[in-house]
Amino acid sequence: MSLITAIAEIVLWTRDKQKSVAFYRDLLGLEVISSPELPNVFLKAGEGAAGIPQMIVLAPMPPDVAARPRGNQLHHLAFELPADDFDDQERTLRKAGYQPRDGQHPVLASRTMYIDDPDGNEVEFICPL
């Protein structure tokens, strides 16, 4: 039995911090919880069972990492949505110029859609049927 109650953070490299902040904060509505003088941007995505925020952390990509071929660092990350908000999220993404891709979860009975963030990371949105 696992003692883990939630995922506390996912840290993503970013080539353009401002574009990534605009994507996660302005488009997806995550709350910035870090002070602006920090190099990384911590965004709250939810609240874990123990009161630790669930976070997406945007870390500026150092030159040696930026020089590597793109891709293969992350398959995708997924955000859970309430079923009543799924269509609203899709409309918001389309209005912002994204073309969500449909998908089917291999295990869960759910609705899913996918887009890519400004750094090419695949972002899934999932809700119960």
Can you describe this structure in just a few lines?
The protein contains 3 helices and 8 strands. It has helices at residues 17-27, 63-66, 86-95, and strands spanning 9-14, 31-32, 41-47, 53-60, 77-80, 101-103, 110-116, 122-128.
The CATH H-level superfamily of the largest domain is 2,3-Dihydroxybiphenyl 1,2-Dioxygenase, domain 1
Count all strands and give the number: 8
Coarse structural class: alpha/beta
Query: Count of helical segments?
Result: 3
Going by CATH, the architecture of the largest domain would be Roll
Q: Helix fraction?
A: 10-25%
Average of pLDDT: 90
Helix/strand order: EHEEEHEHEEE
Rg of Cα set: 15 Å
Q: What is the CATH C-level name of the largest domain? A: Alpha Beta
Which spans of ≥5 residues are poorly predicted at pLDDT below 50? none
In the CATH hierarchy, the third-tier topology of the largest domain is known as: 2,3-Dihydroxybiphenyl 1,2-Dioxygenase, domain 1
Shape: globular
Work out the strand percent. Answer: 25-35%
Main sheet attributes: strand count, strand direction, barrel closure = 4 strands, mixed
Strand order of the largest sheet: 1-4-3-2
Distance between the termini: 28 Å
Estimate nothing, just give the exact number of structural domains: 2
What does this protein structure show overall?
This protein has 129 residues and is α/β, with parallel strands linked by helices. The chain has two domains: 1-63, Roll (2,3-Dihydroxybiphenyl 1,2-Dioxygenase, domain 1), CATH 3.10.180.10; 70-129, 2,3-Dihydroxybiphenyl 1,2-Dioxygenase, domain 1. The protein is 19% helix and 34% strand. It contains three helices and eight strands; from the N terminus they run βαβββαβαβββ. A four-stranded mixed sheet has the order 1-4-3-2, covered by helices on one side. It has a four-stranded mixed sheet with strand order 5-8-7-6, with no helix packed on it. Strand 3 (41-47) and strand 4 form a beta hairpin. The longest helix is centred in the first third of the chain and has 11 residues, at 17-27. The model has no long low-confidence stretch (mean pLDDT 90).
